[in-house]
Amino acid sequence: MSIKTIFSPVKFFLRTTPKPLRIYPQLHQSLPLRHSLTIFNNPLSTKHFATTTINRNSGDSGHTYASDIDTFIMERDILPKLASTTPVNPSRSLLKCINFDNEGNFKLIASDINKTQLILKHDLLPRDLRKIDKGYDDIVPSLLVREHSMLLNILHIKALIKADSVVLFNYGSSYSNERFIRHLSTKLKNTSGEKLPYEIRALEAIFVDVLENLSSEMKVHVTVVNGILKELEDDIDLTKLKYLLLVSKKLSQFQQKATLIRDLIDELLDQEDELVELYLTEKKNQIERAEHDHQEVELLLESYSLHCDSIVQTIEKSVNDVKTTEEIINIILDSNRNDLMLLGLRMSIGLLSFGSLLFVGAAYGMNLHNFIEDKEYWFGIVVTGCCLSTMLIMKKANSRLTQLQRVQVVKRC
């Protein structure tokens, strides 16, 4: 076969292929050096093809050229899939925010703010906004202290606190949220004339709302748990046990949430340098503060830590009550199960004893002649003996069963 015959399909393809649209150097580098790839757009089939330019002066044999044609056909089928994977531009990530100024005034209508603009405006890092982004799980609380701001994420509150402004992220329009916004605005306006800095007052308002929500939720959980435990004292029902299981799971989740908040406050109290960094107003005014001069915020956080610890202790008591009730219920159910097993064993022993009586009656009821049938008093003797034997077997079996019960109790003790 001549070289012209081999290259005729390639020449025909080159003549009928339109002008190239784009070049993919990364594909060109990933293939052998003796091939030159260019992506074309075929308007007839709306697919991308690749042409292969073969070095005719390489001195290869006809078998090599045939393999090059096979490689060309394979590349023509694979490259459309690679070329169609164009990068997708990510959509703009927006956050809904409520802004508070230095006077405590805020906008009722939240505006969408681009996260990039927010990072540049408030001198943050991109990773700082992960926990306040939409859809992020807010079980684990956090308090990040930056040079000119604090980023707080506790329960439903995600806020950025600065020396003269507060930004709330992704806040809803429920009654509790509106009440918190009004309380925060009043606290920032400082109508009571407190000497605390702006950022400490904002932090105080946030912790007050968080602890109020924890207290309200704790009361609900404790009331529900006490009610179901009281009902289980009177009657153990399957429906009540299922409800107790659900309540126990919710109680454990709430305990974890309250414990994490308490641990956050305790860790903050253990770090004196972090407590000093919370005074953003003085840093803004370039006023140096001593390392141990943080009595206001320390007393504030200690009171919240004690309150949160009391909530955790109350929940732990309820959790222990639930566990104790579950253990008692398991003991009662085990005892009932053992009683049923003993009842079944006693019935089996009785059947065995009466079976021996029936065996004797069946044996003497056969049509076989024996000397007992000659005397009438043998009937009473046989019946009496069978009854005594049955009673003896039952007594021996029951005594053995009682002995096994005692051995099991001693082993458990």
From TrEMBL:
UniProt cross-references to Gene3D superfamilies, sorted A to Z: 2.40.128.330, Magnesium transport protein CorA, transmembrane region
Q: Where in the cell is it found?
A: Mitochondrion inner membrane
Q: What InterPro entries does the entry give?
A: MRS2-like (IPR039204)
Keywords from the named record: Ion transport, Magnesium, Membrane, Mitochondrion, Mitochondrion inner membrane, Transit peptide, Transmembrane, Transmembrane helix, Transport
What are its GO biological-process terms? mitochondrial magnesium ion transmembrane transport
What GO terms are given for molecular function? magnesium ion transmembrane transporter activity
Gene Ontology terms, cellular component aspect? mitochondrial inner membrane
A Pfam match: MRS2-like
The transmembrane segments are 343-365, 377-394
Naturally occurring in which organism (per UniProt): Ambrosiozyma monospora (Yeast)
**What is this entry's stated membrane topology?**
Multi-pass membrane protein
Q: How does it assemble?
A: Forms homooligomers. Interacts with MRS2.
Record-stated family: Belongs to the CorA metal ion transporter (MIT) (TC 1.A.35) family.
- Entry function: Mitochondrial inner membrane magnesium transporter required for mitochondrial magnesium homeostasis. Modulates the conductance of the MRS2 channel. Involved in the splicing of mRNA group II introns in mitochondria by affecting mitochondrial magnesium concentrations, which are critical for group II intron splicing.
Primary localization:
mitochondrion
What name goes with this protein? Magnesium transporter
* The organism's place on the tree of life at top rank: Eukaryota
